[in-house]
Structure formats: structure tokens, C-alpha cells
Fold this protein.
Amino acid sequence: MQNGKTDTMNMCKINIKRKAGAARVLTRAFIAMGICGISLWLTGCTDETAQEPENMYNVYMAGGMEETPVVDYPVPQLLPNVLADRRGYSAGSAKKAFVTGRELPETFTLVDEGTGKAVYYGAVEDKTYNAELGLYVGYADFTQVDQPGSYYVECDIIGQSYRFDIKERLYPELFLESYGEMLKDCENGSLSVMGAIRLLEAYEWYGELFPDQNSNNIPDVLETLQGWVAHTEENGAGAGHEALYAAFLAKYGYNIKNYNFEYATECLKRAATVFGQVPEGARDAAVFYALTELFRATGLNTYHNSILKYKSVFQDNRTYLDEGYLYGSMTYLMTRQQVDAALCEEMIYTVISKGEEISEQYQSLIAPAVPGDSARAELMKYVSNLSCANYILNIYQYTSIIEECLHFLMGRNPESVNYYENTGDRTAYLMWFAQLAAFYEDVMGER
């Protein structure tokens, strides 16, 4: 009662003849203090106006008595105990939702959201106790369901998941969505240098996915990027990222040369100039990437000799490779210029061995006990490494792992957050969507 009494004495100092806004504050105080607090108010105040029932009545009439109390405390966020990819699953793919709870049911139901009818029943599998969470975890497998539609997974005791879709062409759709947003960013000049590079990398690897909507036989992405280059040059947007910007310009010139040779030459000259602004002796992933792009475009030994100094990066590498090293390796392996065979072997071995390493470790990062924020950065590295290993092997060996990691990033995590839709830079997802789209279009299309 001590706190209530103190609050009451403070309130007594208020002139209750103030306007209705103050009256509402007093009313909340009455509600919060209860009968005992009101008694203290009536007996402990010394302000004359507070002792006038008639004035008090007028205050109530002016402000109005609140029918329900105003409760000013944060409401805890309620999260589902059934975790699913919030964008959905592709027909023909593995489809699982994680299930967590202090007690788990034996079965689950897949429900059609539109009709509210159950379309599939299954057992909750692999139920184990997770001491870190203090919960049991398991999973609901509904891989057999390929019928397009909107669904949710429902379980007795613990509730249901957020809704999600099953689609025939989910990844081509996600690819075009991500691609379209990046083109808009190109047009308004907000696309980052790394975003522009990712656009070009995806175009080089999976050019058949990129549309030519005006049917002029020039991919729209190359035309749009030309405007982005003009904006970047006018506004100095490449400042501070000289090595990456030089890599982009060299790659862009290489890709557009068959459509506009004169402009491609200008890009290459500009790339050499920008690279000359990189501090002498600088040696990192971005510099390596720029060297590989400039070497592929020019064939100059000056660039190649500098590339050879990076051999140690690929020898006994114990960390996951930065995108600059990954993309630079892919450029070096794809070039028609004279290359160092030993360095090529080191690059291939490093990328593929990292793929094998990830395939043995990735499950520890996509488990229901792992907070999404702490796992996200590591998973982004995983998926980038795996996408390069996939491309080198050309057999989609790691596609299912990439897909599992994406399921986690897109909602199948303890917070049910779709990081693709709720993070600032979404450009990294383009390559992964492109690779999965190519897989489901080419491989699964043969079913």
C-alpha cells in the first residue's frame, strides 16, 4: 500500500478543475488504486478543491467515466508452435514443418485454408526432448501433398502454423519477384554495388531465366543496368567500394559486348581506372574478385600475376569463403584465358570440400532450438558456398540442403520470421532462387 499512498498524495496536488484530459488521468489512477486508494484520496488530501464533491462530479461529467480500464503494458508476442516456411513449398519437393511444445501430439493434420477441410493426416515424427528449449520437438512431413493451394498444419494440444502455399512453380515465381524488385532499385539508383554484381552473376549462370519483355533480343537486365551505371557515375555511388565497382564494370562490359561493343569497351576502360584507385597493396576478397574479372576481360598478365598471389587463400582454408572469393573463383574457372592449372585445382577442391563440410553441419543451424537471428548470417554463407559447389558439380548435389536452409530463413525458425521479406538487403536470395528455379524447371520437369 505504500506505493499506492505515495501516488495518491502526488495526485492530490493536481487541480482537478483542469480540463477533461487531466480528468482521464485521475480516473485511471482511481481504477489502478482500487477502493483503498480512493479512500486515501478522500481522507488524505489538503487541497480544498479536492474536498468538493460537486466539483469532482463536474470533472467526471466533463471527462466521462471509462467503462474499461486502460492497461498500459506490453503484450507478449504469441508465436506458433508449428513452424513452416511462410512462403511455402514447391510441388515435388520435401515438405516438413517443425513441431514444438511441452507435450506433443501423436499426429498432425494438413488443412486446406480455403475450405477448412483436412487434406492429409500424418504422424509427428522424430520426437525428442530439447533441454535448451525445455520443449519436445518433432516434425510433420507432408511431402506427399503436391496439390497447389494454401494450407496450414494443425496439431492437437499445440495449435497450428501460419498459412503457406504449395505451388508448381514456386521458385521461378520467387526469382521473378526478387528480380523485379532489384530492377526497380536499379531504376531509382538505390541498388547496392553488391546487388548489381549478384544480378550479373545470376544472369551469367542462369541467363535463360531472365526475360526480354520488349523483344529486342537484349536481356532487360543488361539494359536496366546501363541506367544504373549512369546513375552511379553521376552520384559517385561506387565511392568506398572501388574494388567491387571495378569488378562489376569489368563483368558488365564482358556481358554486354555482344550487344554494344563500344559501350562494353568504355566500361572496361572505366573498370581499369576505378581499380587504379584501390590503395596499393590492398589484398582482400573484393580485390581478388576485381582481378579475376579484369583478367577475363583483358587477358593481361599484370592482373594474372596478382591473382596467383592469392593461392594461399585456397590452400588449407578453414573458413567459409567470402562472396568475392567465391565469385572470383567461378570467373577464373570459367575464363577462356590461359590460367594456372594448380590454382584451378585448389579453387575447385576448396569450394567442393566446403560443400561437403556444410552438408555434414547444416542441420545444427536449422534446428528449432537455434534463434533465427544468430543463425542467419552463417546460413547466408552456407548457401552461397553451396550454390557455387552446385554449379561446379553441375549435378545439383546440394539443392535439397539449400532448400532446407531457405525454409529456415523464410519462416521455419523459432521466431517464425521470414527473413527474405523482413531484412533490408534481399539481393543474396536471387542466386538461390535462380538455382532452385533452374533445378525444378529442368530436372523436376522431367518427371
Summary: The chain has 16 helices and nine strands. Residues 4 and 33 are 6 Å apart (CA to CA).
